[in-house]
Amino acid sequence: MARLSKRQLLGRAEHGFRESGWNLLYISKPEDHPGRYRIYRGDVAYTAYVYIWNISHGGGQARSTDEFRIQVTGVPGNTFLSEPGGKTLILGWWPNHEVFAGFDYRRHRSQLGSSPSFQVGRDALQDAVTNRMGTHRKSTGELVIAFQPEFIGTYARNLESLHDTGKVMDEVDILRRVAVASETVAEHEIEDSVSQPRRYAVTQTRRALRAIDFRARVLSAYEHRCAMCGVQLKLVDGAHILPVPQPESTDDTSNGIALCSLHHRAYDRSIVTFETNYEIRINESTVSELRDADLVDGLQGFRENLRDIIVLPVEQASRPNAKFVEIANSLRGWR
After folding, report:
1. Which residues 6+ apart lie within 8 Å of 169 measured at CB?
2. 333: alpha, beta or left, given left = phi > 0 and alpha = psi -120 to 50?
3. Among the listed residues 186, 69, 177, the one whose alpha carbon sits nearest the alpha carbon of residue 133
4. CA–CA separation, 50 vs 283, rounded Å?
5. pLDDT-derived band at 77, boundaries 50, 70, 90
6. Which residues partner with 117 through β-bridges?
7. pLDDT over threshold 90, residue 81
8. Are 151 and 231 in contact (CB under 8 A)?
């Protein structure tokens, strides 16, 4: 596959942040490298420098066939930029399978040599392709983390702690298990095996990987289309029917439904729902309250935009489970 330009590479990172639920504002010009951004979600915000290069095979007979690398070029002053409270991401992009590799910038703070390159193993890249995340511990002790684009938000927020797990082999093993099969690693096991400074990062990684897998399966089942209005436009979420905090909730696709941002919020706020026969209902009691508060502008268009019956996945097994629908409607006050 052809190597990407710096602008194209930065575009992959920007797309990943947006797909992982983070908002991104340009501080530098779009064509500048490194890219400098203000990244935020909810009440969390930080400034980030993003350096990125293509990942290629190490090349040469003396190098292992399993060794891949980024060739670091064009760094102003031959030193990576950073700032207090900010993030510095050093990324590689493997175009063959569209995954990133993240390197610990703190291990590369000194001035770079004449032709620096950073290595990552094939296994880590392939694990990222298969399991959404992979790790490679180098002989220097640096832990390289490979991951799919939707994980970049979680990676950036926790990058120092995630890379620091490389200092303790038991923690490296836990992180590897979380990457391979996050559902098999209980949170209490993380609490028992990972020290306090890194525990939050590993827990958030587990949760993020499960959420990414759930979202991908639900959106695929619904063909990235809102089940209530049919819109696509990359405005669709994979929503849990029975909320995650409930004991009966699962990450099964049958406990998910694809909803656009508007109908996701309306569903969570009990303005709209669907029944076990898949018919869509509006909460007339809530509508009455909104009318009394003089907050019904747009209601007619909202009604007209709804389908009578939700869009359904082709596969029967992926369709909403009646048990989850009934419990969820009861919890949300539908009668």
Report:
1. none
2. left
3. 177
4. 46
5. confident
6. 71
7. yes
8. no
Q: How is residue 83 written in tokens?
A: 């700032």
pLDDT in tens, 223-244: 999 999 999 988 898 999 998 8
* 277-325 tens-digit pLDDT: 999 999 888 888 888 889 888 888 999 999 999 999 999 999 999 999 9
- Which candidate, 17, 90, 107, places its Cα nearest to that of 55? 90
**Which tokens belong to 49?**
């420098």
Is residue 219 within 8 Å of residue 258, measured between CB atoms?
A: yes
First to last CA, the chain: 56
Contact 328, 242 (CB under 8 A): yes
Q: 187 vs 138, 178, 251, 284, CA distance in Å? A: 27, 10, 16, 41
Query: In whole angstroms, what is the distance from residue 55 CA to residue 281 CA?
Result: 50
SS3 290: helix
CB crowding 167-203: b at 16 or more within 10 Å, else e: eeeebbebbbbbbbebeebeeeebeebbeeebbebbb
Residue 266 three-state SS:
helix
CA-closest candidate to residue 280, choices 218, 222, 230: 230
For the whole prediction, is pTM greater than 0.90?
Answer: no
Q: How big is the chain by its Cα radius of gyration, in Å? A: 23
**Residues 133 and 182 sit within 8 Å (Cβ to Cβ):** no
CB 306 within 8 A of CB 287: no
Q: Is the dihedral of CA 182, 187, 191, 196 positive or negative?
A: positive
